[in-house]
């Protein structure tokens, strides 16, 4: 099941964010890169702030009803975050969230979504219809790292029905 953020989810999202970076990140990034990236883990209060600003945080739930993955979509179409807990990767949660963001974006009248995808997230975004614009090389706390600027043009066709349970 997929639903939108509720106050009280912020601690689970922080845990998913950090666990994904530190336990999945090493599959494509060096220890120094992972450490620099993990240093950017968001605090619980930041999730509440994003929610209060109107950013859409969509959460995939595991069989036990607990959050296992999330996506943060800003009002301008920027899909800022997509993370899945390491114990729940390769189960389709991330792709469902990417597709849900597209359906929501269409429903909001957006013509395009864009993101900066990690090496690990790039295939998920490609499966969701995003195209790579270019590789971005930069430094986090002096450590060289990269990601991919990607975008997806949203069709003018009627949006598929959202699958999100809104609370």
From TrEMBL:
- Domain of life of the organism encoding this protein: Bacteria
Record carries keyword Acyltransferase? yes
Q: Which GO terms describe its molecular function?
A: acyltransferase activity
Q: Which residues form the N-acetyltransferase domain?
A: 1-155
The protein's Enzyme Commission number: 2.3.1.-
Q: Which Gene3D superfamilies match?
A: 3.40.630.30
* Key words, A-Z: Acyltransferase, Transferase
Q: Does the keyword Transferase feature in the UniProt annotation?
A: yes
**Entries under PANTHER family matching the protein:** ACETYLTRANSFERASE, ACETYLTRANSFERASE (GNAT) FAMILY PROTEIN
Protein name, entry field:
GNAT family N-acetyltransferase
Q: Which organism is it from?
A: Novosphingobium kalidii
């Amino acid at each position: 099941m997929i639903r939108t953020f509720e106050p009280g989810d912020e601690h689970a999202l922080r845990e998913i964010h950090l666990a994904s970076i530190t336990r999945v990140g090493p599959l494509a990034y060096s220890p120094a890169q992972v450490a620099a990236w993990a240093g950017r883990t968001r605090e619980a209060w930041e999730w509440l702030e994003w929610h209060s600003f109107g950013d859409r945080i969509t959460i995939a739930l595991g069989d036990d009803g607990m959050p296992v993955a999330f996506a943060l979509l800003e009002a301008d179409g920027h899909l800022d975050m997509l993370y899945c807990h390491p114990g729940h990767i390769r189960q389709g949660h991330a792709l469902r969230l990417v597709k849900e963001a597209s359906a929501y974006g269409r429903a909001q009248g957006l013509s395009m979504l864009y993101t900066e995808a990690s090496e690990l997230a790039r295939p998920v975004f490609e499966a969701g219809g995003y195209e790579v614009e270019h590789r971005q090389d930069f430094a986090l706390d002096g450590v060289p790292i990269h990601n991919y600027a990607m975008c997806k043009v949203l069709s003018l066709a009627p949006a598929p029905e959202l699958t999100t349970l809104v609370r």
